[in-house]
Amino acid sequence: MDLIRELLLKLEALPVRPGVVVHLRPDTAEVQVDGYDTDQIEYHLSLIEKAGLIDTGGVRPMMGIGFRSLSWSGHDFLDSVRSPDVWDKTKQVASAAGGFTVELLVFAAKTYLEGKIKGLIGG
């Protein structure tokens, strides 16, 4: 899940004009993540696509992905775990629970954030 989070952060930062679909191969500099090889990156890009976290614009290249933007779900996931503090806490909760899905990670992150917000507003 660390690689998925890192890839989504990189994808979000890409300067893609609205409506344009770019082809990203796993060896593209923009999606390189230290400590991971191109096979791992390709597999996780495929997971990101299959999970509906990105809008591919209907483009399905032989290698890599078509990328137009993050989907609503992709933004929701990333906004939930953007903060390194929240991400670390979310991973701790998932590890203690013994497993996780993208949906459960979002739930754990939002629950943690909700608790922090309640503490800030005195609720």
Task: Describe the structure in your own words.
The chain is mainly alpha-helical and 123 residues long. The chain folds into 2 domains: 2-71, Arc Repressor Mutant, subunit A; 83-121, no CATH class. The protein contains 5 helices and 4 strands; from the N terminus they run H-E-H-E-E-E-H-H-H. The strands form 2 sheets. Strands 1-3 form a two-stranded antiparallel ribbon. A two-stranded antiparallel sheet has the order 2-4. This is DUF2513 domain-containing protein. InterPro entries: DUF2513 (IPR019650). Pfam families: DUF2513.
Q: How would you sum up the global shape?
A: globular
- Overall radius of gyration: 15 Å
CATH architecture annotation of the largest domain: Orthogonal Bundle
Let me know the largest β-sheet: 2 strands, antiparallel
- Secondary structure category: mainly alpha
- What proportion of the residues is helical, as a percent range? 55-70%
Distance N to C terminus: 32 Å
CATH class group of the largest domain: Mainly Alpha
Strand order of the largest sheet: 1-3
Provide the succession of SSEs: HEHEEEHHH
- Arithmetic mean pLDDT: 89
Number of helices: 5
* Strand count: 4
User: Beta-sheet strand percentage?
Assistant: 5-15%
CATH topology term of the largest domain: Arc Repressor Mutant, subunit A
Low-confidence stretches: none
Total individual domains: 2
